[in-house]
Amino acid sequence: MTLKLTVDGDRWRAHLRSVVDEIPGLVPVAKGNGYGLGIARLARRADWLGSDVVAVGTYAEVPEIASRYRGDMIVLTPWRPPAVGRSEPDLPTDLADRVIHTVSRPSDLGELLARQPGARVVLERMTSMRRHGLSAEELWALAGLARNRARLEGFSIHLPMGEHGANLAEARRLMTDIIGAGAADGATVWVSHLTPTELATLRSEYADLTIRPRIGTALWLGDRGALRVTSTVQDVHAIDRGDTYGYRGRHALRPGHLVVASGGTAHGLGLSAPTGESSLRARASAAARGGLDAVGVVRSPYLLDGMQLFFAEPPHMQASMLLLPHGATAPEVGDELEVRVRYTTTTFDEIALD
Ligand SMILES: *Cc1c(COP(=O)(O)O)cnc(C)c1O
User: Fold this and answer.
1) Do 320 and 177 reside in the same domain of the chain?
2) Does the C-beta of 216 come closer than 6 Å to ligand 1?
3) pLDDT tens digits for 311-346?
4) How confident is the model at residue 87 (pLDDT cuts 50, 70, 90)?
5) What is the distance between the alpha carbons of residues 142 and 111, in angstroms, rounded to a whole number?
6) What are the residues facing 329 on neighbouring strands?
7) Confidence (pLDDT) at 281
């Protein structure tokens, strides 16, 4: 009775190996729900890949990665002083030596160094994302201090998910700021969301710098054919027109079947399928069309023999009720339905990886 992710292990590992071979200097990103696979599994894979450094999302994730992987960890969430009244334990020394902090505000560097003299740091330059980062002036001002009192491990830029090739101009501007802050001769610049072509261009233009791309999605989820998500059919009920069903006592508009399948809000399943029709515009036009959306019937991410099923009502905690139209062959209890999920928001009951 599970929402299950089945991974073709050989195919997945071959994909990981080929991405790492194609993109030298790649930094695997292991954070959050581990792109559906769990960060512990990604940590072991990064070790197997021989990565010298892994990017983790938060400090809380460090121990889980550190025990399964031998290299360094760069924490993507910028360091902040512990909040007043909250005592955050410092990292144990053996771990502290393996952790590279991201510094994104001028005042944080001094505070970090007061707690951990000689800490390893990268300075993050603000990008058009406007999430975290230093201005060009702040970067210039801070780079000297970082060189003298910290172990400066380079500079970081987090670019938006650019349309194909759209990030190069911005990356160049930011590289100018980074060079202005004194980066030279092998200094490392950690980047995200550059296409392979943009990365190659940047590397040839700044050949004296080391550019290291942080990559998560295209690495772990880059070969979707290696991944299969299935749900177990838990119950099937024939219904007639007018029959009531569900938490809200809805009435069936036509005869057919109700299919109860594993997978619900606890797994991160939302109301709409994550692919295809998920754009705002598509949803707006679906709403404008009236139709099924208007009576609260929404496409689900569940497929039966390739046919996309409709939700009978919004997903429950651990199961979903689906509507099978009249005439379609009903599945049997225990059968599996394919499910299209957004991996970064899905928690699986079981992951089978050979
Ligand atoms: C998540 C993240 C990445 C990786 O993004 P993907 O789209 O999964 O490759 C890179 N850099 C930063 C700062 C991130 O937070």
Assistant:
1) no
2) yes
3) 999 999 999 999 999 999 999 999 999 999 999 999
4) low
5) 13
6) none
7) 55
Q: Is 102 in the pocket of ligand 1 (CB under 6 A)?
A: no
DSSP symbols for 328-352: SPPPPTT-EEEE---GGG---SEEE
State pLDDT tens for residues 231-251.
999 999 999 999 999 998 999
Instruction: State yes or no: pLDDT of 199 exceeds 60.
Output: yes
Task: Give the total number of structural domains in the chain.
Answer: 2
In a domain, 4, yes or no: no
**91 alpha carbon to ligand 1 midpoint, in Å?**
23
Question: Is the minimum distance from the CB of 132 to ligand 1 under 6 angstroms?
Answer: no
Q: With a 6 A CB cut-off, is 339 part of the ligand 1 pocket?
A: no
What is the arithmetic mean of pLDDT over 16-28? 97
Same domain, 140 and 16: yes
Atom of ligand 1 nearest to the CA of 215: 9
Q: Tokens at residue 212, please?
A: 């290291």
Query: Using N-to-C axis directions, what is the helix angle for 106-115 and 136-149, rounded to 10°?
Result: 20
Instruction: Tell me, using a 6 A CB cutoff, whether residue 192 lines ligand 1.
Output: yes
219 touches ligand 1 (CB under 6 Å): no
Alpha-carbon distance 315 to 157, whole Å? 39
Kindly state whether residues 107 and 21 are assigned to the same domain. yes
